Protein backbone atom coordinates (compact mmCIF):
# COMPACT_ATOMS: atom_id res chain seq x y z
CA UNK A 1 0.00 0.00 0.00
CA UNK A 2 1.28 3.44 -0.86
CA UNK A 3 0.45 6.61 0.91
CA UNK A 4 0.56 9.85 -0.96
CA UNK A 5 -0.08 13.22 0.54
CA UNK A 6 -0.34 16.33 -1.57
CA UNK A 7 -0.40 19.77 -0.10
CA UNK A 8 -1.56 22.64 -2.22
CA UNK A 9 -1.36 26.28 -1.42
CA UNK A 10 -3.99 28.23 -3.23
CA UNK A 11 -4.06 31.95 -3.62
CA UNK A 12 -7.24 33.95 -3.91
CA UNK A 13 -5.88 35.31 -7.14
CA UNK A 14 -6.14 31.83 -8.65
CA UNK A 15 -9.87 32.24 -8.80
CA UNK A 16 -9.79 35.83 -9.78
CA UNK A 17 -11.09 36.92 -6.39
CA UNK A 18 -14.80 36.33 -7.50
CA UNK A 19 -17.30 34.45 -5.32
CA UNK A 20 -21.00 33.98 -6.31
CA UNK A 21 -23.89 32.59 -4.34
CA UNK A 22 -25.94 29.67 -5.79
CA UNK A 23 -29.23 28.07 -4.92
CA UNK A 24 -29.27 25.07 -2.62
CA UNK A 25 -29.57 21.73 -4.42
CA UNK A 26 -31.61 18.74 -3.39
CA UNK A 27 -30.24 15.33 -2.41
CA UNK A 28 -28.17 13.56 -5.12
CA UNK A 29 -28.50 9.80 -5.66
CA UNK A 30 -25.07 8.04 -5.67
CA UNK A 31 -24.40 4.70 -7.27
CA UNK A 32 -21.55 2.26 -6.80
CA UNK A 33 -19.51 1.72 -9.92
CA UNK A 34 -18.39 -1.83 -10.57
CA UNK A 35 -15.97 -3.35 -13.11
CA UNK A 36 -16.29 -6.67 -14.83
CA UNK A 37 -12.50 -7.10 -15.07
CA UNK A 38 -9.71 -6.05 -12.66
CA UNK A 39 -8.04 -2.78 -13.37
CA UNK A 40 -4.83 -3.05 -15.41
CA UNK A 41 -3.32 0.22 -14.17
CA UNK A 42 0.05 0.09 -12.45
CA UNK A 43 2.27 2.69 -10.84
CA UNK A 44 4.63 3.96 -13.51
CA UNK A 45 8.30 2.92 -13.34
CA UNK A 46 10.55 5.60 -11.85
CA UNK A 47 12.28 7.60 -14.56
CA UNK A 48 15.77 6.44 -15.48
CA UNK A 49 18.52 8.62 -14.03
CA UNK A 50 20.10 10.63 -16.77
CA UNK A 51 23.85 10.66 -17.26
CA UNK A 52 25.35 14.05 -16.39
CA UNK A 53 26.13 16.13 -19.43
CA UNK A 54 29.40 18.04 -19.04
CA UNK A 55 30.60 20.73 -21.40
CA UNK A 56 32.87 19.48 -24.19
CA UNK A 57 36.46 18.76 -23.02
CA UNK A 58 35.49 19.39 -19.43
CA UNK A 59 38.07 18.43 -16.78
CA UNK A 60 37.96 18.75 -13.03
CA UNK A 61 40.89 21.01 -12.25
CA UNK A 62 43.00 20.43 -9.15
CA UNK A 63 43.29 23.46 -6.86
CA UNK A 64 46.11 25.82 -7.74
CA UNK A 65 49.00 26.34 -5.34
CA UNK A 66 48.25 29.23 -3.03
CA UNK A 67 51.79 30.70 -3.16
CA UNK A 68 51.13 32.26 0.21
CA UNK A 69 54.42 31.64 2.09
CA UNK A 70 57.85 33.20 1.57
CA UNK A 71 61.04 32.78 3.59
CA UNK A 72 64.32 34.66 3.79
CA UNK A 73 67.35 32.80 5.15
CA UNK A 74 69.42 35.36 7.01
CA UNK A 75 72.86 35.45 8.56
CA UNK A 76 71.89 33.47 11.63
CA UNK A 77 68.10 33.39 11.45
CA UNK A 78 65.14 32.81 9.17
CA UNK A 79 62.19 35.14 8.52
CA UNK A 80 58.93 33.62 7.28
CA UNK A 81 55.96 35.61 6.01
CA UNK A 82 52.61 33.84 5.58
CA UNK A 83 49.56 35.46 4.02
CA UNK A 84 46.48 35.24 6.20
CA UNK A 85 44.72 33.91 3.11
CA UNK A 86 46.96 30.91 3.60
CA UNK A 87 44.83 28.58 1.48
CA UNK A 88 44.32 31.02 -1.38
CA UNK A 89 40.53 30.80 -1.14
CA UNK A 90 39.83 34.35 0.00
CA UNK A 91 39.24 33.40 3.63
CA UNK A 92 41.82 34.47 6.24
CA UNK A 93 42.98 31.95 8.82
CA UNK A 94 43.24 32.61 12.54
CA UNK A 95 46.72 33.71 13.64
CA UNK A 96 46.65 31.27 16.56
CA UNK A 97 46.18 28.38 14.13
CA UNK A 98 49.55 28.96 12.40
CA UNK A 99 52.95 28.33 14.02
CA UNK A 100 56.55 27.94 12.91
CA UNK A 101 57.63 24.72 14.57
CA UNK A 102 55.43 25.58 17.54
CA UNK A 103 56.52 29.25 17.72
CA UNK A 104 53.80 31.88 17.36
CA UNK A 105 54.06 34.80 14.95
CA UNK A 106 55.94 37.85 16.23
CA UNK A 107 53.87 40.35 14.27
CA UNK A 108 50.76 40.53 12.12
CA UNK A 109 48.69 42.93 10.07
CA UNK A 110 45.37 42.38 8.31
CA UNK A 111 47.13 40.57 5.46
CA UNK A 112 50.29 38.87 6.74
CA UNK A 113 51.71 36.85 9.65
CA UNK A 114 55.45 37.23 10.32
CA UNK A 115 57.65 34.63 12.04
CA UNK A 116 61.33 34.89 12.96
CA UNK A 117 63.65 32.27 14.44
CA UNK A 118 67.32 31.58 15.02
CA UNK A 119 68.58 28.80 12.76
CA UNK A 120 68.72 26.36 15.67
CA UNK A 121 65.35 27.30 17.27
CA UNK A 122 61.61 26.72 16.71
CA UNK A 123 61.98 23.00 16.11
CA UNK A 124 64.50 23.32 13.28
CA UNK A 125 66.46 20.29 12.14
CA UNK A 126 70.04 20.40 10.90
CA UNK A 127 71.00 18.01 8.13
CA UNK A 128 74.20 17.76 6.14
CA UNK A 129 74.85 16.59 2.63
CA UNK A 130 78.15 16.28 0.84
CA UNK A 131 78.19 19.97 0.00
CA UNK A 132 75.57 21.70 2.17
CA UNK A 133 74.33 22.52 5.64
CA UNK A 134 70.52 22.33 5.56
CA UNK A 135 68.31 23.89 8.25
CA UNK A 136 64.73 22.62 8.00
CA UNK A 137 61.75 24.43 9.52
CA UNK A 138 58.07 23.44 9.39
CA UNK A 139 55.13 25.86 9.21
CA UNK A 140 52.09 24.18 10.77
CA UNK A 141 48.43 25.06 10.18
CA UNK A 142 45.96 23.44 12.59
CA UNK A 143 42.44 24.88 12.13
CA UNK A 144 40.32 25.43 15.23
CA UNK A 145 36.51 24.91 15.22
CA UNK A 146 34.46 27.69 13.68
CA UNK A 147 32.84 29.88 16.32
CA UNK A 148 31.07 27.81 18.95
CA UNK A 149 30.42 24.99 16.52
CA UNK A 150 32.37 21.73 16.40
CA UNK A 151 33.09 22.00 12.68
CA UNK A 152 35.99 23.09 10.51
CA UNK A 153 36.04 23.75 6.79
CA UNK A 154 39.73 23.26 6.18
CA UNK A 155 42.23 20.52 6.97
CA UNK A 156 45.48 20.77 8.85
CA UNK A 157 48.71 20.73 6.85
CA UNK A 158 52.36 21.66 7.09
CA UNK A 159 54.85 23.43 4.83
CA UNK A 160 58.55 22.54 4.88
CA UNK A 161 61.01 25.44 4.65
CA UNK A 162 64.71 24.81 4.00
CA UNK A 163 67.75 27.06 4.26
CA UNK A 164 70.77 25.67 2.40
CA UNK A 165 74.32 26.82 3.08
CA UNK A 166 77.01 25.56 0.74
CA UNK A 167 80.14 24.08 2.26
CA UNK A 168 82.45 23.62 -0.71
CA UNK A 169 85.55 25.76 -0.82
CA UNK A 170 87.93 27.16 -3.41
CA UNK A 171 91.48 27.61 -2.19
CA UNK A 172 94.19 29.80 -3.66
CA UNK A 173 97.59 30.95 -2.48
CA UNK A 174 97.38 32.85 0.78
CA UNK A 175 94.10 33.03 2.65
CA UNK A 176 91.34 30.60 1.70
CA UNK A 177 88.70 32.87 0.18
CA UNK A 178 85.07 31.95 -0.37
CA UNK A 179 82.94 32.54 -3.44
CA UNK A 180 79.41 33.82 -2.98
CA UNK A 181 76.83 31.89 -4.94
CA UNK A 182 73.35 33.35 -4.35
CA UNK A 183 70.36 31.09 -4.88
CA UNK A 184 67.44 32.46 -6.84
CA UNK A 185 64.49 31.90 -4.60
CA UNK A 186 62.91 32.93 -1.34
CA UNK A 187 63.21 29.69 0.57
CA UNK A 188 66.81 28.74 -0.06
CA UNK A 189 70.07 30.68 0.13
CA UNK A 190 73.58 29.39 -0.42
CA UNK A 191 76.91 30.47 0.99
CA UNK A 192 80.44 29.23 1.60
CA UNK A 193 82.21 28.69 4.85
CA UNK A 194 85.37 30.73 5.05
CA UNK A 195 88.38 28.63 6.11
CA UNK A 196 91.89 29.90 6.68
CA UNK A 197 95.22 28.24 7.42
CA UNK A 198 98.01 30.81 7.72
CA UNK A 199 101.55 31.21 8.93
CA UNK A 200 101.65 33.97 11.56
CA UNK A 201 104.28 36.33 12.96
CA UNK A 202 105.84 35.58 16.34
CA UNK A 203 103.33 37.81 18.16
CA UNK A 204 100.36 36.22 16.31
CA UNK A 205 99.20 39.66 15.17
CA UNK A 206 99.80 39.40 11.41
CA UNK A 207 100.19 36.83 8.64
CA UNK A 208 103.88 36.03 8.20
CA UNK A 209 105.13 37.58 4.91
CA UNK A 210 107.79 34.90 4.41
CA UNK A 211 107.76 31.14 4.80
CA UNK A 212 111.53 30.86 5.23
CA UNK A 213 112.67 29.52 8.59
CA UNK A 214 115.89 28.60 10.33
CA UNK A 215 116.03 25.34 12.19
CA UNK A 216 115.16 26.11 15.80
CA UNK A 217 112.51 28.65 14.76
CA UNK A 218 108.86 27.96 15.39
CA UNK A 219 106.32 27.72 12.59
CA UNK A 220 103.17 29.33 13.94
CA UNK A 221 99.93 28.25 12.27
CA UNK A 222 96.51 29.77 12.71
CA UNK A 223 93.48 27.78 11.55
CA UNK A 224 90.15 29.56 11.48
CA UNK A 225 86.62 29.39 10.17
CA UNK A 226 84.30 32.35 9.83
CA UNK A 227 80.57 31.86 9.87
CA UNK A 228 78.28 34.09 7.88
CA UNK A 229 74.82 32.51 7.60
CA UNK A 230 75.51 29.93 10.27
CA UNK A 231 75.24 29.35 13.96
CA UNK A 232 78.63 29.75 15.71
CA UNK A 233 81.21 27.19 14.60
CA UNK A 234 84.33 25.69 16.14
CA UNK A 235 87.35 24.81 14.01
CA UNK A 236 89.55 21.81 14.72
CA UNK A 237 92.64 20.42 13.00
CA UNK A 238 92.28 16.67 12.66
CA UNK A 239 95.68 15.90 11.13
CA UNK A 240 98.84 17.36 9.60
CA UNK A 241 101.40 15.46 7.52
CA UNK A 242 104.76 16.71 6.22
CA UNK A 243 106.07 15.20 2.97
CA UNK A 244 108.57 15.95 0.20
CA UNK A 245 105.82 15.83 -2.45
CA UNK A 246 102.18 16.92 -2.57
CA UNK A 247 101.09 13.30 -2.18
CA UNK A 248 101.03 12.57 1.54
CA UNK A 249 101.52 8.85 0.90
CA UNK A 250 105.07 9.37 -0.38
CA UNK A 251 108.21 8.46 1.58
CA UNK A 252 109.57 10.09 3.64
CA UNK A 253 106.56 11.52 5.46
CA UNK A 254 105.99 12.73 9.01
CA UNK A 255 102.54 12.76 10.62
CA UNK A 256 103.09 15.18 13.47
CA UNK A 257 99.39 15.67 14.19
CA UNK A 258 96.65 13.08 13.90
CA UNK A 259 94.17 10.83 15.68
CA UNK A 260 91.49 13.53 15.50
CA UNK A 261 93.48 16.42 16.97
CA UNK A 262 96.45 14.92 18.88
CA UNK A 263 99.72 16.83 18.32
CA UNK A 264 102.35 14.07 18.53
CA UNK A 265 105.50 16.08 17.75
CA UNK A 266 106.34 17.02 21.33
CA UNK A 267 105.76 13.46 22.53
CA UNK A 268 107.82 11.90 19.73
CA UNK A 269 110.73 14.36 19.63
CA UNK A 270 110.66 16.19 22.97
CA UNK A 271 109.98 19.50 21.21
CA UNK A 272 107.92 22.37 22.58
CA UNK A 273 105.32 22.09 19.78
CA UNK A 274 101.84 22.75 21.13
CA UNK A 275 98.32 24.04 20.66
CA UNK A 276 97.85 27.42 22.30
CA UNK A 277 94.91 27.76 24.72
CA UNK A 278 91.79 28.34 22.67
CA UNK A 279 90.43 31.88 22.99
CA UNK A 280 87.80 31.71 20.24
CA UNK A 281 85.74 28.82 18.91
CA UNK A 282 86.33 29.88 15.32
CA UNK A 283 90.12 30.11 15.67
CA UNK A 284 92.83 27.61 16.66
CA UNK A 285 96.56 28.36 16.95
CA UNK A 286 99.43 25.89 17.12
CA UNK A 287 103.19 26.13 16.83
CA UNK A 288 105.65 23.55 15.52
CA UNK A 289 109.41 23.67 15.88
CA UNK A 290 110.84 23.96 12.36
CA UNK A 291 112.31 20.75 10.94
CA UNK A 292 113.39 19.16 7.68
CA UNK A 293 113.82 15.66 6.35
CA UNK A 294 117.25 14.10 6.73
CA UNK A 295 119.39 14.40 3.59
CA UNK A 296 116.72 16.45 1.86
CA UNK A 297 117.09 20.20 1.37
CA UNK A 298 114.37 20.72 -1.24
CA UNK A 299 111.75 21.83 1.24
CA UNK A 300 108.56 20.08 2.20
CA UNK A 301 104.79 20.12 1.87
CA UNK A 302 102.55 20.23 4.94
CA UNK A 303 99.03 18.93 4.43
CA UNK A 304 96.51 19.72 7.18
CA UNK A 305 92.90 18.65 7.49
CA UNK A 306 90.58 21.28 8.97
CA UNK A 307 87.06 20.63 10.16
CA UNK A 308 84.20 22.77 11.49
CA UNK A 309 81.56 21.72 13.99
CA UNK A 310 78.81 23.67 15.72
CA UNK A 311 80.24 25.57 18.68
CA UNK A 312 77.88 23.88 21.13
CA UNK A 313 79.24 20.45 20.19
CA UNK A 314 80.93 18.92 23.21
CA UNK A 315 84.73 18.71 23.21
CA UNK A 316 85.29 14.96 23.09
CA UNK A 317 87.57 12.30 21.63
CA UNK A 318 86.71 13.23 18.04
CA UNK A 319 86.51 17.02 18.52
CA UNK A 320 89.60 18.24 20.35
CA UNK A 321 93.02 19.93 20.20
CA UNK A 322 95.53 18.05 22.39
CA UNK A 323 99.21 18.76 23.11
CA UNK A 324 101.70 16.66 25.08
CA UNK A 325 103.71 18.15 27.95
CA UNK A 326 104.15 15.69 30.81
CA UNK A 327 100.77 14.35 29.79
CA UNK A 328 98.06 15.28 27.31
CA UNK A 329 96.36 18.68 27.64
CA UNK A 330 93.38 19.97 25.66
CA UNK A 331 93.37 23.57 24.37
CA UNK A 332 89.90 24.29 25.79
CA UNK A 333 90.64 22.69 29.16
CA UNK A 334 88.63 19.50 28.56
CA UNK A 335 91.65 17.28 29.17
CA UNK A 336 89.65 14.03 29.40
CA UNK A 337 89.03 14.29 25.66
CA UNK A 338 92.76 13.52 25.16
CA UNK A 339 92.57 10.14 26.91
CA UNK A 340 92.53 8.29 23.59
CA UNK A 341 95.57 10.02 22.03
CA UNK A 342 97.83 7.05 22.84
CA UNK A 343 95.32 4.56 21.40
CA UNK A 344 92.64 5.18 18.75
CA UNK A 345 90.22 8.08 18.92
CA UNK A 346 87.93 6.67 16.25
CA UNK A 347 86.00 8.69 13.68
CA UNK A 348 83.24 11.25 13.83
CA UNK A 349 79.74 9.85 13.62
CA UNK A 350 78.09 10.83 10.36
CA UNK A 351 74.69 10.30 11.92
CA UNK A 352 75.35 12.68 14.80
CA UNK A 353 74.50 16.06 13.34
CA UNK A 354 76.14 18.01 16.16
CA UNK A 355 79.51 16.41 15.46
CA UNK A 356 79.51 16.38 11.69
CA UNK A 357 81.33 19.24 10.09
CA UNK A 358 82.82 20.67 6.96
CA UNK A 359 86.24 19.31 6.17
CA UNK A 360 88.93 20.53 3.83
CA UNK A 361 92.63 19.92 3.43
CA UNK A 362 95.08 22.79 3.09
CA UNK A 363 98.42 22.10 1.41
CA UNK A 364 101.29 24.12 2.84
CA UNK A 365 104.50 24.26 0.82
CA UNK A 366 107.69 25.26 2.61
CA UNK A 367 110.91 25.47 0.63
CA UNK A 368 114.60 24.83 1.52
CA UNK A 369 115.06 26.73 4.73
CA UNK A 370 111.38 26.92 4.26
CA UNK A 371 109.69 29.43 1.52
CA UNK A 372 106.52 30.09 -0.17
CA UNK A 373 103.50 29.00 1.70
CA UNK A 374 100.60 27.88 -0.47
CA UNK A 375 97.20 26.31 -0.04
CA UNK A 376 95.42 23.93 -2.35
CA UNK A 377 92.35 21.83 -1.82
CA UNK A 378 92.34 18.08 -1.41
CA UNK A 379 89.34 15.88 -0.76
CA UNK A 380 87.23 18.96 -0.18
CA UNK A 381 84.11 18.64 1.94
CA UNK A 382 84.24 14.97 2.76
CA UNK A 383 83.37 13.66 6.20
Automatic annotation (TrEMBL):
Natural source organism: Acanthochromis polyacanthus (spiny chromis)
Function field: Component of the zona pellucida, an extracellular matrix surrounding oocytes which mediates sperm binding, induction of the acrosome reaction and prevents post-fertilization polyspermy. The zona pellucida is composed of 3 to 4 glycoproteins, ZP1, ZP2, ZP3, and ZP4. ZP3 is essential for sperm binding and zona matrix formation.
Any one GO CC term of the record: plasma membrane
InterPro entries to which the protein is assigned, alphabetical: ZP-C, ZP-C_dom, ZP-N, ZP_chr, ZP_dom
Keywords: Cell membrane, Cleavage on pair of basic residues, Disulfide bond, Extracellular matrix, Glycoprotein, Membrane, Secreted, Signal, Transmembrane, Transmembrane helix
Highest taxon of the lineage: Eukaryota
Gene3D superfamilies: Zona pellucida, ZP-C domain, Zona pellucida, ZP-N domain
Subcellular location field: Secreted, Extracellular space, Extracellular matrix; Zona pellucida; Cell membrane
Region called Disordered, residue ranges: 27-55
Family: Belongs to the ZP domain family. ZPC subfamily.
Protein name per UniProt: Zona pellucida sperm-binding protein 3
PROSITE patterns listed in its UniProt record: ZP_2
Extent of the signal sequence: none
Predominant localisation class: secreted
One Gene Ontology biological process: binding of sperm to zona pellucida
Membrane topology: Single-pass type I membrane protein
GO-annotated molecular function: acrosin binding; structural constituent of egg coat
Notes on the domains: The ZP domain is involved in the polymerization of the ZP proteins to form the zona pellucida.
Amino acid sequence: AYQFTAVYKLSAQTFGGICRASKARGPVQQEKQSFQEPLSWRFPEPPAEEEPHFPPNFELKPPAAADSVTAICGESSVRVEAKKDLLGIGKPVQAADVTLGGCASIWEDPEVLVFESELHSCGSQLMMSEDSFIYIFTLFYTPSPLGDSPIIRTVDFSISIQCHYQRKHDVSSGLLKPTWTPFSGTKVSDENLYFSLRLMTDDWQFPRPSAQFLLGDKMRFEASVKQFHHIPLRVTVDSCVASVAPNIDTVPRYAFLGNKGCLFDSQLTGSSSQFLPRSQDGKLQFEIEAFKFQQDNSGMYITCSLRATTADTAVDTTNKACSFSNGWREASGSHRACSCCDTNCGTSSKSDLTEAGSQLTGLCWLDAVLPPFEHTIQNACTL
